[in-house]
Amino acid sequence: MxxxxxxxxxxxxxxxxxxxxxxxxxxxGCVLTGVVGGALVRQEGIKTLMDIQRVAAQGRxxxxxxxxxxxxxxxxxxxxxxxxxxxSLGFLVLVPGIRRSLAAYLLDWFxxxxxxxxxxxxxxxxxxxxxxxxxxxxxxxxDKS
Length: 145
Description:
Elements: H1 2-21, H2 23-57, H3 63-80, H4 84-94, H5 96-112, E1 114-119, E2 122-127
Antiparallel strand pairs: 1-2
Helix pairs in contact: 1-2, 2-3, 2-4, 3-4, 3-5
C-alpha cells in the first residue's frame, strides 16, 4: 500500500515539476540526484565498512554499524529510483547523525521484541538484547535468578 502511495505521489510530483521547469530539466534533475547520490552512498559505505572493522577490532559486536550499512543499501535503491520523494528520503538518511540515530532506534526496537523459535515440538522463547547494553543475551521465563 505504501509503495503504491509513494509511486502515485512521485508520478504527480514529476508531472508538476515537468510542467513548471520542462521535461529536460526534470530528467536532468533525476539523473543528477542519482549520480550524486550514488557517489555519496559509495563514500558513506566505505566509511561504514571502516567503522565495522574498527568496532570488531575492539572486540565489540558492530551491530549499529551493520544496521547502518544495510540502511545505506536501501538508500542506494531509493536514490536510483526516479523521483524526488524517494531521493529526498535517501539523502536524509545519508546524513551520518540521522543514520546513526535511526540505526540505534531500529536496534532497540528489534531488541525489545520477544523472539520465538519453533524447533520441532519445543518452543524456545528468547529476548534479544542491544549489544551495547549489559542485559543478558537470553531471557528465559523459567529462570528466576
